[in-house]
Every structure is written in C-alpha cells, then in structure tokens.
Amino acid sequence: MATEDNTGRWNQSAFKDITYPIPSSMVAGKKTVRVKFQALPQSAAGPVYYVRLVKKE
To answer: Residue 43 and residue 27: Cα distance in Å, rounded?
Structure first.
C-alpha cells in the first residue's frame, strides 16, 4: 500500500505522526484488518510505536 524511505531518520529522537489513508475497497465488508510492516530485501523496517485505525464517517 505504501513505501517509505527511512534514510536519515535513524538519527532523530522525535516521534512522527504519519497518516496513510486506506482505500475503502481494501476494508469493505471485513470484520478484521491486518496491518503489516515489511522491509524491502536488504533493508530494515523502522520502529513502530503506535498504530491506530480510524473509520471515516
């Protein structure tokens, strides 16, 4: 769904709020949703401290 370039972010000591809109077609009719953070080959995924899913009205 999204790709992030974390180059240079390791030296920061601040939390960042990042919002990723999820297309309604990906969640329509589902009771559960899986959120997965996966690094590209030969890369590392950055730390994730908090995830919140919000439903639009």
So the answer is: 28
Taking the domains of the chain in order of start, what are their residue ranges? Answer: 32-57
Residue type, 51: V
What span, in angstroms and rounded, lies between the C-alpha atoms of 53 and 1? 15
pLDDT on residue 7: 75
C-alpha to C-alpha distance for 2 and 46, rounded to whole angstroms? 14
Q: Note the Cα 45 to chain centre separation in Å.
A: 10
Give Cα 32 distance to the centre of its chain.
16
pTM above 0.90, yes or no: no
pLDDT tens-digit series, residues 5-52 = 777 766 777 788 888 888 889 888 999 988 888 888 988 777 888 888
